[in-house]
Amino acid sequence: AAKGSGRGRFRFFSGDLLQAATDRRRLEDDLRDALAKGEIDLLYQPIVNARTNCVTGVEALMRWTHPVHGPISPALFIPIAEEADLIQQLGAWVIRRACEDAVRWPGALRVAVNVSPMQFTNEDLPKIVLSALAASGLPPARLELELTEGVFLSESPETDGMFSVLKDIGVRLALDDFGTGYSSLGYLKTAPFDKIKIDQSFVRGVTAPGSRNGAIIAAIVALADALGMETTAEGIESFDQLALIRDLRVSHVQGYIYSKAIASGEIAARLESGDWAIAPSGPARQRSE
Ligand code: C2E
Ligand code: MG
Ligand code: MG
Ligand code: MG
Description:
Elements: H1 16-34, E1 40-49, E2 55-66, E3 70-72, H2 74-83, H3 87-102, E4 110-114, H4 117-120, H5 125-136, E5 143-147, H6 157-169, E6 172-178, E7 195-198, H7 200-203, H8 213-226, E8 230-233, H9 239-247, E9 252-253, H10 264-273
Parallel strand pairs: 2-4, 4-5, 5-6, 6-7, 7-8, 8-9
Antiparallel strand pairs: 1-2, 1-9, 2-3
Helix pairs in contact: 3-5
The chain binds ligand C2E and magnesium ion (MG) (3 copies).
């Protein structure tokens, strides 16, 4: 027990552990009201065709600006939202908001939305997607759902059912953070993914001498090609990385080298100004015109 005598009294419960648990509880409470208080925002990061250099879509990324602590990373608050049962509410908001924003952009840009495994196992997901599409008027093919390998942890008949219902709706499916989970290849036999997103841990260090990352990326690309799936390399920060990734024939690229995630209005402005060429169905505008 933590009870003792003298200075060491609190040693078992003091320090980071207690602090972390308390912080987490407080954050959880704050997160409960964050959406209603307008502290949650949705930003968008461009995804670029590696061959044509055209922006083909964007990924929606949630941002939480805490009134006291400032910006809190989704890597921190998404797991809290999942544990506190807030992910359904936040996730539905993201899908709705992303569809509303996407119809306002010029061209036929796709919008990719991260969907947590807990949302994927929610039988209401198809309804949520359908109503977001109907309310916004966004064509289903312009919405892409990014799923992680986590959706296969609870593999059940319902998992297969959810895949086919979503495909019937006509949305695209991407397998996010590929290579970081337990990466059983078995599910690629049947899961109807349109795209594999190669995790940024493979891009980081890819240019280092003796790195095996390039070989792994090449293997993922070969696999995706054979299965008729696109690939996106995440987290490209340098021209060296970009050149190498292009040589490896990854079809799409995403990273700070192009842009970090920016507001919906900025996406529209860049497209309108011709800063970004639009692909595939929009006219490819030249900067010089
Ligand atoms: P993710 O889906 O793999 O998203 C890509 C992450 O990589 C984003 O981090 C993005 O900002 C970051 N990134 C992009 N380019 C670069 C780069 O060049 N260098 C580096 N170092 N990082 C780059 P972010 O926005 O912090 O999101 C982290 C994770 O949180 C996401 O990973 C996703 O798993 C989750 N997340 C974010 N928004 C949502 C959401 O709306 N719903 C759900 N369920 N999860 C979300
Ligand atoms: Mg993602
Ligand atoms: Mg990812
Ligand atoms: Mg990630």
